[in-house]
Amino acid sequence: MNTTGYNNTANGFAALFSNTTGYENTAVGSQALNANLTGSNNTAVGTQALYFNSTGGQNTAVGSWALNENIIGFNNTATGFNSLRKNTGNSNTANGPSALASNLGSGDNTAVGANSLQTNTSGYANTAIGTTALGSNTTGHSNTAVGTSALGLNSSASGNTAVGIQALPLNNAAANTAVGRYALYSNQSGPSNTAIGDEALYKNVSGNANTAVGRYALSYNTTGNLNTAIGTNAGTPFNVGNLSNITALGNNCVVDASNKVFVGNASVTSNGGQVTWTAYSDGRIKNDVKENVPGIQFIKALRPVTFHYDVTKENALLGILDTAHWEGKYDIEKIAFTGFIAQEVETAARQIGYDFSGVDKSGKLLGIRYSEFVMPLVKGMQEQQVIIETQRTEISDLKSRLDKITAALTGAGIAVEK
Description:
Blueprint: E1 9-11, E2 26-28, E3 43-45, E4 60-62, E5 77-79, E6 93-95, E7 110-112, E8 127-129, E9 144-146, E10 161-163, E11 177-179, E12 194-196, E13 211-213, E14 228-230, E15 247-249, E16 261-263, H1 296-300, E17 305-307, H2 311-318, E18 337-339, H3 342-351, E19 359-360, E20 367-368, H4 374-411
């Protein structure tokens, strides 16, 4: 049926059978480019490759039924059996058996690997590299999946990035980034998470806006939100999965309650910086201000002690599974620290009716905010100063009275020993 078409090559039963004006086409295989009319610059190699193509141009199909149902789409490349079979869109690239096999009118997709983006219908601007990567995607767009089964069950969510074997494999939420083997492995509905590292945020199911950097970072989080963990095993204990708004910085650093920030693990012997920590203390943000801080009464009830830390016991109480060993891990146990016992401080405050904020009871282990002791100490010094001033006045009065008595006795001729 060819009329004015030129520079065409056809090799196979009914190859380029319907071509009229299309030019510079190459068809190799039974019924390859069979329905082509005016489409040009197409290459089809394989049984029924680009079979239904009519006007589409600049397409390359290598493999049986590759780009089989493409009619008007252009600039597509399909390599592999059944790849881009149902396509009608433009500028898609599929490399692998059944890659982008169901794609219809959407464009700008890239699929490399068997069954990658195989169910995609209208999703666009997706990139899938790896067997079954984005394999269940249908309408989701702007996703990037690199690795076997990465974003494998994602169907309609968009804006996700998964790099690593089975990274985000169960996901169907938006705006997640997973880089690392099994990163965000269990995530289904949690959006806006970032996981970088082997099994980072591994158990997260619905938690959102979490950031985990490091192997196993926040790996036990399931439903918690707005958490940040940086470091291997950083995050929450193995038996806690729903904390929110925590920050854990450092190898094996865990936080045991929401709205807390921890730095370092049980082996850290020093942390600090150029200046001291600053806490907001602006009077404009303070209500119900009272001068009811106890001083000497509270200070007298305290018991300053020295002690040594037990790293193993601390980890056990916090639920930390730390089997790693390194030089200096237990050096902190050799240091004699000075401080208070939190339970004793709490008891001392309770006995005098003092609601003391210096004992942190938010987590599994009691803590002490030593800066909070400044106020009772200041109050105690003020109380002592009142006593000192009172005693000074009394001493001055007694001295004046003594001087008068001495003068009277001396005037009466009575010797007074000084």
